[in-house]
Amino acid sequence: MEQSKDEKLGTEKLGKLIVSMALPAVAAQLINVLYNIVDRIYIGHIAGHGDMALTGVGVTFPIITIISAFSAFAGMGGAPIASIHLGKKDYEGAEKILGNSTSLLLLFSVVLTAFFMIFKTPILYAFGASDNIISYAQEYITIYLVGTVFVQLAIGLNTFISGQGNAKVAMLSVLIGAIINIVLDPIFIFLFDMGVKGAALATILSQAVSAVWVVRFLVSKKSIIRIRKKYLKLSKKIVGAIAAIGISPFIMQSTESLVTVVLNNGLQKYGGDLYVGTMSILMSVMQLIIVPIQGVSQGVQPIISYNFGAGKRDRVMGAFKRMLIICLAASMTLGISAIVGPEIFARMFTDKKELVDLTASVMPVYFFGITIFGIQMACQCAFIALGQAKLSLFAALLRKVILLVPLAIILPKYFGVSGIYYAEPIADIIAVFVTSVLFLTITRKFLRNCGNNDMMGKRKQ
């Protein structure tokens, strides 16, 4: 009799299993980032004012990141717990998590849309917009906010598909939306002459299709766990369990907004619009580097969670070691490529020579520390997969809030605008060292509870 998808997480050879889970997850992450990257590439090449439009849309990045962070709170907070329950064959418990996560995503959609619609203009100015670029930022984010519910459901619920071992289905849900976005972007931006409005419209329409795909799968018989009406009512205990894990990925993503705001304001103060433009490109290239690493870690995460719940310690450690090697190799390869070929990456987003030259000159410094970032990502993912929310939260806060933000404020006072670019590699290197030492020091302690951990407070019988 053929094993179900979730059972293979606990029995299939680790090497083969990781490839089957990680490759679709990497593909899904790369495809997902195309939503924003493709927009910026097209926008940056709008005749006459592409550089200003690109800078304006770049200022909206913190808002977009905050919206995605809330989807991560419910999705990445709930999916590992659901996987742990699947490892224990507790399908009802897994469906309760899925139902409550779905309700949280819908609730977040309403609140976020209303809040940002009302306060978008002062927020955009606070995030680094100037009078020269504010109109582009407003046009893009106004349309994007209309599709907040699609973003929440498409991103947040897709983790429950991969969490039950259906990595290929999760990849297809993202692929469908990305293809639609890539096709619609040039039509709306150039053919219909809609500019940044067209880019935003193409994005939300493609996200809508992805959301429909994901929800349709999760209510069908093809899904091991399904969205059921009776589990949509929010439970304080379940929401608390989701929050305990979800707060870490939420902070990981939401603090990107804080970082972007600090960097943009510093660049505006010490440099001007041109320097803010470099950050738009640097953040886009950063996504291209980090997203494959996130894909690997998210692909391996259900394997670790499932086997942790099933009490298979050797498989937990075996999966982590393989994930660490792959993530480090990826961060080194991609980081070095940005360091040695910065002009190639810069020209992807703009053809304005002044912006290309400035971006190419700062990129090698900015990405120096990212070469070892795979270690940080692997450890953070393992903390989440094992239900160690506080440790994962600390690791997330350390790099961005504790290190990067203060460095980005202090260093420019001594090194001028260059200090802002120095802050990133210094924060990356220190964070990797501290997180890896923390992981090695206490991993054995919480692995003793392998198979005895219940995320909703029930004791194992």
Automatic annotation (TrEMBL):
GO biological process: response to antibiotic
Bilayer topology: Multi-pass membrane protein
UniProt GO molecular function: antiporter activity; xenobiotic transmembrane transporter activity
Membrane-spanning ranges: 17-38, 58-83, 104-128, 140-157, 169-192, 198-218, 238-254, 274-293, 323-345, 365-389, 429-447
Localization per record: Cell membrane
A Pfam family it matches: MatE
One cellular component (GO) term of this entry: plasma membrane
Alphabetical UniProt keywords: Antibiotic resistance, Cell membrane, Membrane, Transmembrane, Transmembrane helix, Transport
Record-stated family: Belongs to the multi antimicrobial extrusion (MATE) (TC 2.A.66.1) family. MepA subfamily.
PANTHER family recorded: MULTIDRUG EXPORT PROTEIN MEPA, SPORULATION PROTEIN YKVU
Protein name: Multidrug export protein MepA
